Structure formats: structure tokens, C-alpha cells
Amino acid sequence: MDEAPPVWVDRVGFKATITESFTRQSKFTYGFVVEEIKTHDEDNNICTHGSRVLPSRALSMDGPPTTFSGTGVDRMAFLQANITRDNTEFVNGATIGDRYIFQLDQGLGIGSKNPFFNRHQLSVTKFINLNKKDKGAGKPPPAVLAIHGRYAGCVGDLPSYDAFAIGGPHSVRGYGMGELGASRNILEVATELRIPITVKNRQTQVYAFAEHGTDLGSSKDVKGNPTEFFRRAGHGSSYGLGVKLGTVRAEYATEF
């Protein structure tokens, strides 16, 4: 892959939201967001296009535009809504149950070049109690199989800083943030097996995981096609092992 000098994205604005709790497990949050986005290079100058280092070590400045307006500065206003249904519970310290999250961002055509868009994301996670351990003080936590899926997409105007990045600690582990590409649509699937162990009379867990992410062929629909420009794959998978040490996770991941 080609080297890519970093572009820093600064956001400033305000967000006003209202949250309604339907039940203990379900809530609905909706609101209004206004923000200004600026993109900078490493010297803190306004950066209008991405760049890459050529084989000659010269810097190519003909990359994808960093903002929707093409000026390095965007202003926009949009509505945002989020529905969360969380049926998870703790069984002897392990999370068991289901969690569903749906988020919707609706552009209003207000701002730089009147951006109008609909961004949507659906995330589903299921934690399965494998050995049916019951709750109880002093009882060991159960072995857990976690299954996760996420779909996200955008219809309408899409600035590159809001494209869906594939790869990273919250996408496909083992890759850097956005190392696999930036896309208009994304599909991620993951599974993780968690096994409790006792070390010096303290409970912890070891786990194994496998993950996959793909742009569903939508990278070309991002303005300037940053995935192709920076020669990213657009998809990738990983698997690995890890151990939880208190609130810290130590992991080893392999890409394939």
C-alpha cells in the first residue's frame, strides 16, 4: 500500500437531544446537530485533498477531496435519531443477552454546498450463555459466545470524513484504522468465544475471535475513490487470541 500523509479532521459545533425511555431495556434519542468541519495537514494548514508518496518520494496532491465543499472547510446541519434495545444482563460478571442499535442521520440541505443525505447504521450483538450457568454470589461466570453484525450505508451526499472506515479496533481487529478502505456501504461480521479462567484466585477470561469486513463494492461511490487511490483492498478478515486483564485486553491478531 502507498504511504499516506495523515489528514486531521477537526469538528466543532453543538448538539441538542431528547431521550425517551420506553422500557428499562429500550430508549429513543433524537436531536439536532450543527457542526463545522476543518481538515488540516501535519503542519496545521488547511488541506483540501488527500496526498500520497510516489515511488520517486515526491508527494502527489491529486487525491480525493477531504471535504464536501472542496475548500477544506464544511458547515452542515442534520437531524439524528438513535433507537437502542438492550436486553443484556450480567451473569456472575459475564454479559448475556441481546443488544440492537439503529442510528439515522438525516441531512437538511443546510450548509456548504447544501449537503442532503441519509446515513443509517444497524448493529446487532448476541451474547450466548454456553454452559447455562445460573446467577449466584461466588459462582463462576459462564463461557460466552458473542456474535456481532453491523450494516451501515449512506444515500445522497457523502463527504470523505463521514465515509465508513473498514479496519481498526472497532471494525476488523489486526488492521489499522481505515487500512482496508473507506466506503459508502459496509458490512461487518464477528464472533468471539470467551472462556473464564481463574488466576491466583481471581476471575478473568481468555478468548478467541474472527472478524470480516467488506465495502460491498461501494468504495467507488465515495467521491475521489480513496480506497482505490490509496490502493486499499476494500475488504479483509482477521482472527486471533486474547486475554482480559482487569479492564485491559491484550490481543494477538492475524490478518488474512
From TrEMBL:
It is found in: Plastid, Chloroplast outer membrane. Residues 9-247 form the Bacterial surface antigen (D15) domain. Gene3D superfamilies: membrane protein fhac: a member of the omp85/tpsb transporter family (2.40.160.50). InterPro entries: Bac_surfAg_D15, D15-like. GO terms for biological process: chloroplast organization; protein import into chloroplast stroma. The keyword Membrane applies. Its main location: plastid. Keywords: Membrane, Plastid, Plastid outer membrane. The keyword Ribonucleoprotein does not apply. GO terms for cellular component: chloroplast outer membrane. This is Bacterial surface antigen (D15) domain-containing protein. The lineage of its organism: Eukaryota, Viridiplantae, Streptophyta, Embryophyta, Tracheophyta.
